[in-house]
Write a structure and sequence with these properties.
Layout lengths: L3 H7 L5 E2 L4 H4 L5 E6 L11 H12 L3 E6 L19 H18 L8 E4 L1 H4 L4 H7 L6 H6 L1 H7 L7 H4 L1 H16 L1 E7 L3 H13 L6 E5 L12 E2 L2 E2 L9 H9 L3 H11 L4 H10 L9 H29 L10 H7 L5 E5 L8 H7 L6 H9 L3 E3 L2 E2 L17 E6 L3 E8 L1
Parallel strand pairs: 2-3, 2-5, 3-4, 5-6, 9-13
Antiparallel strand pairs: 1-6, 7-8, 10-11, 10-12, 12-13
Helix pairs in contact: 10-11, 12-15, 13-15, 17-18
């Protein structure tokens, strides 16, 4: 198996490393960790980079450690604005949901991931003991020099002492894991560099073994915006918050400018195959969107398993606009939980203009946008293109007197269930 650091460098994962010695360090089996705070009951697409990095370590013969922030989640890492503090019930519920996700996502052979909760060691500290034994070794000057801290200090909101202390907690995490679990590598997004180096410095001061830090670039689009957001909200990894079909559809819609980067960072395809796909995209006979379909299939399979991918493909094929697929109440009942949908009263649908229903379904933001969509040939009702901006829905348009399928283009769909 290839050296995992060289492998990650080739795929564009490495932003910074604390030492080039890390390349040699991973020639033996090591323990590496990434931390995940339970700010929600699901992780999102941006978190997937850290998960993929852990999986690469696992495939290369190392042991991945997943650290759930039962303690750090109570504090909040300094971001652009201060995080709202979670109540205990919400925090515990989020922790359980994320743990369940990690227990199933690492499949196949190799070392079994170790999942730990950092509250297990922080709960044993009193405030005075922590300040005396740990806080004493952190200097305020270097803490103030961290980029995320400087940004918040210069912001209108400022920075609370609670958030300022976060890097001490994360720094202690690394030292604790090194002492008790022989973890020598911490990974995180580029915005975690300051927190990671706090840990390497603290571990050195207490006489721990040499440890290393890696940051990977944040998952951003070619225009600089972060991946993981859509018009409907965050791209969650939990099927309870976002169906496998919706997850698949988000990835199918990424731009040509971004798809190769995502194939490198979010899939386990061989680099030779990815370069071949990139070359195919430049040819005149390239089938449009085929690279995106491959991306969507690979990532959906990793996150949702083979069953989730099959479900996403089944829905995609069954309700594709412009196809001859037979639509029925039975098929919609099967698909409904796997695609955006809503129940509406018959009075809210019959004798209503299609443009108004498109707005209500959030397929477009305004009537004028809906009209443009229709004029440009991108509006479908029950897989049939609608060309008339004044089109009014009637009872005969209902599928089995109970359903309507709306499509904006060939990728955004919305199912309406008519209540009697």
């Amino acid at each position: 198996m290839k050296n995992v650091i060289e492998l990650l460098q080739e795929r564009g994962f490495i932003d910074q490393m604390t030492s080039q010695e890390l390349v040699e360090h991973v020639n033996s089996a090591r323990n590496a960790y990434v931390g995940f705070d339970p700010t929600a009951d699901s992780l999102h697409l941006g978190n997937l980079v850290g998960i993929i990095a852990l999986e690469w370590f696992r495939r290369c013969g190392h042991t991945p450690y997943v650290i759930l922030g039962g303690a750090t989640g109570r504090i909040g890492d300094p971001k652009s604005v201060e995080r709202p503090l979670l109540d205990e019930q919400t925090l515990q519920s989020n922790l359980q949901s994320i743990r369940r996700f990690f227990e199933k996502i690492f499949r196949g052979g190799g070392s079994k991931p170790v999942i730990l909760n950092n509250n297990d060691w922080f709960a044993k500290f009193s405030l005075i003991d922590f300040l005396r034994d740990v806080g004493k070794l952190f200097r305020v000057g270097p803490m103030l020099a961290k980029e995320t801290v400087k940004q918040r200090l210069n912001s209108e909101e400022g920075l609370s002492f609670t958030e300022f202390s976060y890097q001490i907690l994360q720094g202690y995490d690394f030292a604790y894991l090194n002492q008790h679990h022989t973890v020598t590598i911490q990974m995180g997004g580029s915005d975690q560099w300051g927190n990671i180096t706090s840990g390497t410095d603290y571990n050195r001061k207490i006489g721990g073994s040499i440890v290393y830090g890696i940051t990977f670039p944040l998952l951003t689009k070619s225009d600089g915006k972060k991946f993981g957001k859509s018009e409907e909200g965050a791209i969650w990894l939990s099927e309870e918050k976002l169906s496998a079909y919706q997850f698949y559809q988000y990835l199918v819609r990424v731009s040509d400018a971004d798809v190769i980067k995502l194939l490198r960072m979010l899939t386990f395809l061989d680099m030779e195959e990815i370069r071949s796909i990139e070359q195919q995209m430049q040819k005149s006979d390239y089938a449009p969107n085929s690279a995106q379909k491959r991306l969507a299939e690979e990532v959906t399979r990793f996150v949702h398993g083979e069953e989730g991918l099959e479900k996403a493909l089944k829905v995609t094929e069954g309700i594709a606009p412009g196809t001859e697929a037979q639509l029925s109440a039975a098929s919609f009942k099967e698909f409904m939980q796997d695609m955006p949908h809503a129940e509406m009263n018959q009075n809210d649908v019959i004798d209503v203009k299609l443009v108004d229903l498109f707005v209500r379904a959030n397929l477009v933001s305004s009537k004028s946008e809906a009209i443009r969509l229709i004029k440009n040939g991108g509006a479908y009702l029950n897989n049939v293109r609608i060309d008339d901006p004044t089109f009014v829905i009637s009872a005969r348009d209902l599928i089995d007197e109970a359903y309507l399928l709306l499509s904006a283009g060939k990728k955004k769909r919305f199912l309406v269930h008519i209540s009697k």
